Amino acid sequence: MFEQEEQRDELLEKIEDLISRKRYAELRDLLLPLEAQDIAGLFMELDDKVPMVFRLLPKEQAAEVFVELDSEEQEVLIQSFSNTELKEVLDELYLDDAVDIVEEMPANVVKRILRHADPDVRKSINEILKYPDDCAGSIMTTEYVDLKATMTVEDALKRIRRTGPDKETINICYVIDEGALKRNLELLKLVREKAGCKILLAQKAFSAFAVYPLIAQYLDGVTASGIFEAKLGYEEMAKPFGRENHVFSPAYPEQDFDELLKICDHMVFNSPRQWAKFRDRVRANDRYIQAGIRVNPEYSEIETDIYNPCFTGSRLGCTLEEFRKDPALYEGIDGLHFHTLCEQDADALALTLAAVEAKFGDLLPRMKWLNFGGGHHITRPGYRLATLEQCITETQKKYGVQVYLEPGEAWALNAGYLVTTVLDTLQNGETSLAILDMSAACHTPDVIEMPYRPPLLDAGDPGEKPYLIRLGGPTCLAGDVVGDYSFASPLTEGQRLIFGDMAIYTTCKNNTFNGMPLPPIWAMDENGTCRELVKFGYSDFKMRLGRAVD
């Protein structure tokens, strides 16, 4: 929107001048960068010149402007349209916008609109218009948001943002970008094929099983950290697609073990005591289960202890000292597993691998496989793929083992968004704040735990843009803060914001602290069409705290 009335007046004056001199190409170039609602506002002052100016706009922009006009202005334009022009505008409209327009038009205009609308659109409009005015069906839409195949990601996100609070949309939701997901999958597939390794999906980072059929085309299996993830991996990946189902736990609960034996192909144990406790049951199982031991090379490049499996006193993995106490306990083990990385490049893997070889190299020739764990940032721009491939191929050649990788983040890196809405703005001294309907503590826990500052569309770092605003959630937790971002203009109530990189460690880690609702999860396919995967309600909060007693 125009920040100053003078700007608007100057622009109107320039438009009138260009019209009078018939400089239509210049007029078109002047209008192209403007937002649709701004152009619609200018049309109110152009009177009979509106149809001519409207025809200068590209089809998509024209449709966006048309939606922003009031019903009287829309009717005037429709009356001026040829049948071809009317069809072109209708073809660019979103279904919910088309329905809104039809509802405001007189009968003769409605007949003309429906006569020239695409048959499928006409059918959908008629279906919606059948609902009585006081029925919920009259205000619902058959789609969440319909995007065009020609849109860039930025254009698509702006369309999501532009859909206002008065539309039939949800103010907060996760969106999985299947196009971006597929680009990650293709890269991981390339690594598999070139290096000859096997790659698993670590479900702790991404477990949106609705897209497992897509992921199944590119991976060898999944890995779990406990019984529920293992069941999910079996039900949604191993059973329907024949992929491997791996599990690791620092300690297996007795009550879970028999079920794990039925659904897992690989089981990794954390200590000599755990292997000694369960070894006989594993080897007596009807199906042969590959058994592994997690080792701790006592080396890591991770600086933050909460994410460092190898810090001093870690409970994860068996150290060389522990191993030497009773090597006989490891008889029957098929492979070794280590995990030392977190969002790191292959150079860190090479250093870790050297530490593993130095301490456990004498065991490797006796093993069938070696699992390099997770934390490989393979799909990050600039990642050293050649180094990773070299680490894999040289290890496999030297020791005759099958190498596994189990990244989680790499599968869905930058493949999701969190759409949120500004609830309020306020000032505390020199600090400008905005309260969002998303919570860092509940919906993006890594923001607080990591800590992590997620990317935000159209926002900058502090000092990059004129207005610095601290974004926080609606919970009572004082530290429920996403971060400080700069903007080109102040935020306003009802404004939509879109965070990026929201597919990983969000939906699988979110929670209902403070009674916060869980956002629904949507998926956006490669053509830009969105569909709802799941939504949540009050019962999802209440039932995890107890159940009603009859």
Structural overview:
By secondary structure, the chain is α/β, with parallel strands linked by helices. It has 3 domains: 5-142, MgtE N-terminal fold, CATH 1.25.60.10; 178-412, Alanine racemase (TIM Barrel); 416-542, Lyase, Ornithine Decarboxylase, Chain A, domain 1, CATH 2.40.37. Helix content is 40%, strand content 15%. It is built from 23 helices and 16 strands. Strands 1, 10, 11, 12, 13, 14, 15 and 16 form an 8-stranded mixed β-sheet that branches. Helix 5 crosses helix 7 (83-92). The longest helix is centred in the middle third of the chain and has 18 residues, at 178-195. It is elongated and about 95 Å long. Mean pLDDT is 88; it is low at 133-144 and 163-168.
Q: Strands, helices and their partners?
A:
Blueprint: H1 5-20, H2 24-31, H3 36-43, H4 50-54, H5 59-68, H6 71-80, H7 83-92, H8 95-104, H9 107-116, H10 119-129, H11 153-162, E1 173-177, H12 178-195, E2 198-202, H13 212-215, E3 221-224, H14 227-241, E4 244-248, H15 254-263, E5 266-269, H16 272-283, E6 290-294, H17 320-325, E7 335-337, H18 346-360, E8 369-371, H19 385-399, E9 402-405, H20 409-412, E10 416-428, E11 431-436, H21 440-443, H22 446-449, E12 467-472, E13 481-487, E14 496-500, E15 521-524, E16 530-534, H23 538-542
Parallel strand pairs: 1-15, 2-3, 2-9, 3-4, 4-5, 5-6, 6-7, 7-8, 8-9, 11-12
Antiparallel strand pairs: 1-10, 10-11, 10-14, 12-13, 15-16
Helix pairs in contact: 3-5, 5-7, 8-10, 14-15, 18-19
